[in-house]
Amino acid sequence: MAPSGTREYISLEALNRNPENNDDEAEEEQPHCKRSNIWHRIDITSVLTIFLGLPILLLAVTLLALFWHESMKAIDGAEPGIYWVRIVNAGWAAQLVTVCTTSIRTVVDFQAGLATAMVAGIALETTGVPLLQSSFFSMLRAFKVAPSNIWTGTDFQPHMSRYIYALVLIEVLVTAASQFLSTIFLSDFTNGTFSQRSNSTNVSVLYTTYNTGVAWTRPPAASWTFAELSESFDNRSGFHDTGHTFRAFLPFEGEAQRTKLRRLRGPTTVMDHRVVCASPPLINLNLNATLGDLVHLSGQIPTKDLAYPLLIDSDPRPYINFTCHLPMPTTKDNNTKSTVGETSLCFPSSRFNWTVLNEDPLIQPNGSSWASSLFMVLDVVFHPAILSTLGHAPAVQTIRTDGPWAIVSNGSVHIETLRVSACLTNLAMQTLNVGMNSKSDSLEPKLTWDHHTGSYNTELPRLQLGVSSPSNTNSTNHRGILTLDPRSQWEIFDPPDTPGLSTLALGDAPNSFFMDVLSNFPAFFPSDLSYTVDRGVTLSRISQSATYNNAHSTHTDLFQDTLMTTASPALALQATLTRIYQMTYYEQLVRLSSPVAAETAFSLTATIPVRWTGFMLGLVLIGVHSVIMVVVIVLFVRSTEISFIGSYWQTVAQVVSKETRPILKQADRMDDGAVMMDDSEQPPSPTRIQERMS
Fold first, then answer.
1. Chain centroid to CA 619: how far?
2. Annotated region Disordered: where (predicted)?
3. Phi first, then psi: what are they for 586, rounded to 5°?
């Protein structure tokens, strides 16, 4: 090399075509072999690296892609494949990733070494390399080391074209990143909840009912989740209609089973929680507020020519009589005009002498069952107006209507005192073969006490019940409940021939459940027994005394919060009665026996992939490596003629020439640095390395 540091680039040629120009070189020439076939210039290890590496990469990536795909399906609520479930249940998910990434890294390392050898051959036969680095580049073809050695072995000066330089640089980065491939793939892993495959599970069927004694003075044990199929809320002039709201109660006593249920197909208790509230025509009204007695409103609803949606059967009684208890006003109530939270729920059917029908009921009425029942919601508007009637029973009247409410005066100065709404709802149940599903675990929110408001926080329970707004548009997943299959897919449950589980008993269950719910409405007993008060319950935040049959605060707060939020007595009544239905159902469920089979699938929490980020990053690394390999192989085939991959003797033979012999004579006891320093004192020679082949 010249002292100035200039370097002489030598390309490896197949044959010197003008030996007469240099007699000394001609004397050293050896017979030249014909150009070898590409497969003869690649050793068996390189052939295996090419032809086995690609299938191994494809297999490993395919296995990981299928595992990720099944994981995403499972997280979305679909049923995963059996092999995926077995891998996850056995705890082999991380091991699968480790095995696949180890295989990928092994192939990448082998192929990166082959790419290094081919790049060395390309550099030697095209652009050339400095004379003192020719031995290094020649040996790279035999040893097939990592591509990073091209820089470390040449003091980070690879002396190649920019195109080759870029390929090698990218491959170095990809090879380095592939060492963390397992970590990259496992970065997608976290605790995920997925649905297991369906299995047969024994469930209890509500084929009979017991007098559970569910009391309005007790709180519900839970905010039980359920499956629902509902219509949209209808707010028309004069009435509110929740629409058909079919709900199936889950036949499981444990909260974990209910909340983790993803799919069920089998016999289940179904009810229609549709509630229609309208402004009723009221006549013969009397407001009785005699001292020492219960305050109540009595009157009649004429059944002739009732407008939709108050539909009565073909042979109705001329009047529906009612005597409904009201919250007892106190002296302090006279000092405020606020009556928020003062309501009475009345059931005017103590004599059971008429039948009320709702449109398209779940169960048609027969001799032993009712399709629907009439409830009256009486909301206090102005307490002082009630107190002004103490000591006498004035005749009062309806002075106007307001949506589903009839506004009632106090009879003297026509002060708005009460608002009344008549509501129809279905209390009957039916055992049907239905299907339900959910893409996520259900929720059973807990009622918590709010010290600031002095009441229970009902926001989450109301969201679950779908009464958090007048037109609730939240999905069933957001509400934490399951989705009930369409009504067209329901089937009549045909009970098996099991002792105690008879068709007759199942046929009686709707009426039994209906009667059990109604029997739990408190009965009022006036002290003078001069009149009969219909069954009902007070939903008052002010009058909390149990003497007046006030409901537990959980029921009161749920009703009042819904009424204030939605301004709909239909939604408020639906939410409150749903909790009473559930209390009755689960009180009876623990007493049932003779279970029947149902197809169920529950969720399971395990460490699985929950996103595609790490997988896509790993796939990009593998893809970039594969592209570089294809490009390098194509360049090697097109640009080289005599480079042999994995041939050690050729490596030695091709670096021995007239130019390198002086260096070889000195280099046996010198390191590379000493050789380069010694050679820098010699003038450069514009000769080329000749092919030396035996």
1. 26
2. 674-694
3. -75, -20
Out of 125-134, 295-304, 347-356, 555-564, the most confident range is 555-564
Global pTM reads 0.75
Mean pLDDT (the chain) is: 79
Q: Kind of pairing, strands 226-230 and 482-484?
A: parallel
| SS3 category, 433 | strand
The CA distance from 571 to 6, in Å, is 91
pLDDT-derived band at 140, boundaries 50, 70, 90: confident
**Could you tell me which residues come within 8 angstroms of residue 513 by beta carbon, excluding any fewer than 6 positions away?**
206, 209, 427, 428, 429, 584, 585
Q: Which residues contact 170 (CB under 8 A, 6 or more apart)?
A: 624, 628
Q: Pairing mode, if any, of strands 275-278 and 283-288? A: unpaired
- Is the CB of residue 536 less than 8 Å from the CB of residue 522? yes
- How many angstroms separate the CA atoms of 173 and 628, rounded? 12
Alpha-carbon distance of 506 to 205, in angstroms, equals 9
d(CA 198, CA 597): 12
C-alpha separations of 256 from 236, 335, 463, 654 in Å: 41, 49, 20, 76
> Which residues are CB-neighbours of 31 under 8 A, at least 6 positions away?
693
DSSP 488: G
* CB neighbourhood size of 213 (10 A): 11
Report domain extents, the chain. Answer: 43-191+608-667, 205-593
Contact 636, 121 (CB under 8 A): yes
Structure letter (DSSP) for residue 42 = B
Place of tokens 């109530």: 333
585-600 pLDDT tens trace: 888 888 776 688 999 9
Residue type for position 257: Q
- Give the pair of three-digit tokens for residue 418: 């009460």
Pick from 51, 173, 27, 182: which is nearest to 690 by CA?
27
Do the Cβ atoms of 419 and 408 come closer than 8 Å? yes
Per DSSP, the three-state class of 536 is: strand
pLDDT for the residue 688: 36
3-state secondary structure of 170: helix
Residue reference for tokens 């992939």: 609
Gap between the Cα atoms of 262 and 190, Å rounded: 20
Note the maximum CA span of the chain: 143
> Per mean pLDDT, which of 289-293, 368-372, 384-388 is the most reliable?
384-388
pLDDT in tens, 441-454: 999 999 899 888 88
Cis peptide bond upstream of 609, omega within 30:
no
C-alpha–C-alpha distance, residues 626 and 615, integer Å:
16
